[in-house]
Amino acid sequence: MDNARLASIPTGLINDNALASAVRNTCLSFLERRDALGLSNPGTFENINREVARDVLLTNFMFTGLRAEWNKPISNSPIFQLSHQLSMGAQGMSPYTFSALYGSSKVFLQGTMENDGSLVARSNYRWNDSLITKTNAQIQSSQSMLSIENDFSGRDFTASLKAMNPSILEGGVKGIFIASYLQSVTPSLALGIEAVWQRVAMNSSPEALLSYGARYKGLDWIASLQMQTEGPQGSAISSSYWRRLTDKVSVGTDLSLQFAPGLSGQGGLMGGSLQKEGSATAGAKYEFRASTFRAQVDSKGRLSCLLEKTILPAVRVTFAGEMDHLKQQAKVGVGVSVEAMSEDLMEQAEKGGVQAPAVPF
């Protein structure tokens, strides 16, 4: 409730009641001080370390083998695009994938079908400026998955509720349910909490755990910390640090430490020893005029790099490589992406006559 909505409440009865008047004045004072802080939306708890995990490090970009992609934009407003992808020798990638994408200011739809019949469908719907509903469905020969997520973005907070494979058809509730909340408390600091409840089958006991997170934003750097409380798989602590060195160069580090109960020994939970496992990753991103280079090294002895270069306005080439010094293994990936845009759409893009809508990704 904001100041305007509080002020619109009739004050006749409130002023006659001392308790109600005190509550109203307290709320108004709190909201005024909150406005004076100038807080901004911190994003979602899931993406609390997005600058490092999604932009600098190679987790979402690395691939092996040969890959060729052909994109055919049909329309810019609304966005409508078809895509064909061929791959060979790539781990975890289908030899052929067809996908279609549609996006407007309210709706985002994407469907992907592989040569073995596996289907992945995503849809986002923007109810208003604050609420977005996201659904993701996967149909495969081995297993299927359905997730439904609702994100509510306030002026200085974000609340999310997510359900994965929910079901009440077996006499009870099962699935995975995740609720999270991230709140800006100062212009630089945001604090959040995430709760997870899951039950795989009705003959198994439900499991629950809590995670706490903090995100601090400096002038040209961002640090985040996450702590997962003790659950069936133990507890974990992870931290990340991102810094922009120049307009073209940014670096990031990610540290994680896991504590899991052992099966024997003394001093751990239920008489077992406490096993510890940690990992560290450092990476850098260089942005040039027509290319982007990423490199990272981790504590397991793996050195990885990826180069994306635009050789023509519609042609992009990607080179990826990874060397595992401990296992004495090397992996290489080469990809080519071609965007077959029609002359009409190309003229519109050059003139800037049609602007793409703000798609609710």
Q: Could you characterize the architecture of this molecule?
A:
The protein is mainly β. It has a 19-stranded mixed beta barrel. Strand 11 and strand 12 form a beta hairpin. The protein starts with a helix and ends in a 10-residue tail after the last helix. The relative contact order is 0.14.
Strand and helix map with partners:
Layout: H1 3-7, H2 12-16, H3 18-37, H4 50-56, E1 65-76, E2 79-88, E3 96-103, E4 107-114, E5 119-126, E6 131-139, E7 144-153, E8 157-167, E9 174-184, E10 189-199, E11 207-217, E12 221-231, E13 234-244, E14 249-261, E15 274-287, E16 291-298, E17 302-312, E18 315-324, E19 329-339, H5 343-351
Parallel strand pairs: 1-19
Antiparallel strand pairs: 1-2, 2-3, 3-4, 4-5, 5-6, 6-7, 7-8, 8-9, 9-10, 10-11, 11-12, 12-13, 13-14, 14-15, 15-16, 16-17, 17-18, 18-19
* Proportion of residues in helical segments: 10-25%
Determine the number of helices (DSSP H or I, runs of at least 4 residues): 5
Helices and strands: which structural class? Answer: mainly beta
Q: Unreliable stretches, pLDDT < 50, 5 or more residues?
A: 263-271
Strand content: over 45%
Total E-strand runs: 19
Query: Major β-sheet, in short?
Result: 19 strands, mixed, barrel
Distance between the termini: 27 Å
What's the rounded overall pLDDT mean? Answer: 86
List keywords for this structure.
361 residues, single chain, mainly beta, 5 helices, 19-stranded mixed barrel
